[in-house]
Each structure stands twice: as structure tokens, then as C-alpha cells.
Specification:
single chain; alpha+beta; Four Helix Bundle (Hemerythrin (Met), subunit A); Nonspecific Lipid-transfer Protein, Chain A; 2 domains; 6-stranded mixed sheet; two-stranded antiparallel sheet; 8 strands; globular
């Protein structure tokens, strides 16, 4: 039986993740309600505010369907048989649609056991994975909404700390799938959170693999979250949880984030966290 890595394990209680989905989604909606629909989204310049609303609405509807029809995969019935949601024409209708889709996600998560089996693109095939991932999805897009409207507020530090770990060990790293392999490295990077005792150790390495179904090649930089090696780090990155989370998601610059040690190792780390996520 595969044992989950520390990076894939939830650091918060499931009801806490659910509360964050509610509050971050509500803040997202509040900020964008009075925003110019044509305002550009700084982190995603191809989007305007209306596109951002529709994006998060679609994401939350998608995962509501996945949880509702668990353990079916998106390409399998009954999920694949559901009609595709149509984007409303007016901004007010778009906001109302977001309310409906966000409510659907929260409702399905409330009804489901977090430990129940459910499809997910990541290795952890449980409902709880969506509790965690969707809390961070809502958090980062709430920040997008605030940046678009010019009214940024702080990120919750414990949620942001969990977001840093999820990004390092799931979004940009993790154990390879069966069709891939990792070429290991002796280098170690310590990611130190200055507002908590957390230190996340990561190994910049290289992933090799071609996804069998799509034929897409994924060779490139990769990260593995590892145990404390009991020796000095080759490179150290220090910052507050909220700053690191926003920086790693390319939602802010590196002001206030301290980097020390081997710059080549740091470069390998940055190469792993630089590709766009989709």
C-alpha cells in the first residue's frame, strides 16, 4: 500500500478547510461585485474580472460534480453526460451563477466523508483532497480578485503555510506516477517560515516521463519534499507564510523574502517552481 508523503497530508482539520472555502469564496464575490468587469487581473493579464469570476465558478462546479458522482472520473458517466455550463452574458448574472456553483461545491463537500474515495488528478484519491485543494484555489483567486480591485487584505497564515507545502509537494513535486521516474540530487533547500516553526525541506531533482494516454512528455525540473537531513541546507529561503505562498504562486514579488546559500541550488529550485500550472 502506498504511504502518503507529508506534503500530501492535510495540515488543517477538514472543517477548517471547508470554512476557508466559504470565507475565501465570499470575499472573492464581495470584492468583484463592485469591480469593473473589464478590469485586468494582474497575475493573469489575459483575463478581466468577468473572466476571473467565470473561472472560479467553473472550477467549483467541476469539483462539485466530481464529489457528487464519486468515484467516477470526469470523462466517465454520469459526469461526462451532464450538459456543459453556459457562461451568462451579463456580469450580474455571472456573479449569481458563481453563487450557485460555489454553494454546490460546499454542499457536496458537507455531505461527503473526507476519507471517501473520489477521483482526483493528484495521487490522493479522496474527497479530503478536494477540501484542501479547493481551499487554496479559493484563497489564491481571492487574492487575484483583490489585486484586480486594488484592495488587498492579508492571507490567513496557517492556510498559507499549508499552501506553501502543498505547492512544493503536490503542485510542483511529489512522488512520480508509474509511467515516470525521478533522477535524484544530493542538494537540499530549506524553506523556512519566519512566522511559524515550520521548515520544509525540498530536493530539486529531475522528472522523466511521457504520459501514456496523451503522449505528452513531462521531462523537466521537479521537487521532492524530504525529511530534515540533519545537516545544513545547501540553500535557504526565508519568509512569512503568506508572502511565500503568494510569491510561489507568482502573485507578488520577492520583496522581504531572504535567500542564502548556493545560488545554483536555488536556481534549480526556481526552475522547478517557474512553469505555469494548469
Amino acid at each position: 500500500m502506498r504511504v502518503a508523503s507529508v506534503a500530501t497530508m492535510p495540515r488543517l482539520e477538514y472543517p477548517t478547510y471547508l470554512d476557508h472555502i466559504r470565507t475565501e469564496s465570499a470575499r472573492f464575490r464581495e470584492v468583484l461585485t463592485g469591480c469593473d468587469p473589464a478590469a485586468r487581473v494582474p497575475a493573469c493579464p489575459d483575463w478581466d474580472a468577468a473572466d476571473l469570476v467565470w473561472h472560479l465558478a467553473g472550477v467549483q462546479l467541476f469539483w462539485a460534480k466530481v464529489i457528487r458522482h464519486r468515484p467516477a472520473a470526469p470523462d466517465d458517466p454520469p459526469i461526462a453526460d451532464e450538459p456543459e455550463a453556459q457562461r451568462p452574458e451579463s456580469y450580474s448574472e455571472l456573479l449569481d451563477t458563481f453563487d450557485d456553483f460555489s454553494h454546490a461545491l460546499v454542499t457536496e463537500l458537507e455531505r461527503a466523508d473526507p476519507l471517501a474515495h473520489a477521483w482526483h488528478w493528484s495521487p490522493e484519491q479522496t474527497v479530503g483532497t478536494s477540501y484542501r485543494r479547493q481551499a487554496h484555489e479559493a484563497l489564491i483567486h481571492r487574492l487575484d480578485a483583490e489585486q484586480t480591485a486594488g484592495m488587498v487584505t492579508p492571507l490567513d497564515p496557517p492556510l498559507a503555510a499549508d499552501g506553501v507545502l502543498e505547492l512544493l509537494g503536490v503542485m510542483y513535486g511529489g512522488e512520480p506516477p508509474e509511467w515516470g521516474r525521478v533522477e535524484r540530487s544530493p542538494a537540499r533547500v530549506a524553506v523556512e517560515l519566519t512566522d511559524s516553526p515550520d521548515v520544509f525541506w525540498v530536493e530539486p531533482c529531475t522528472f522523466f516521463g511521457t504520459e501514456p494516454e496523451s503522449g505528452k512528455n513531462y521531462d523537466g525540473p521537479h521537487l521532492l519534499v524530504v525529511d530534515d537531513p540533519g545537516a545544513p541546507a545547501d540553500a535557504t529561503i526565508r519568509g512569512a507564510a503568506a508572502d511565500l505562498d503568494a510569491w510561489l504562486w507568482s502573485r507578488r514579488d520577492d520583496a522581504g523574502i531572504e535567500v542564502t546559500g548556493d545560488l545554483e541550488v536555488y536556481g534549480a529550485f526556481m526552475a522547478a517552481v517557474s512553469p505555469d500550472l494548469n
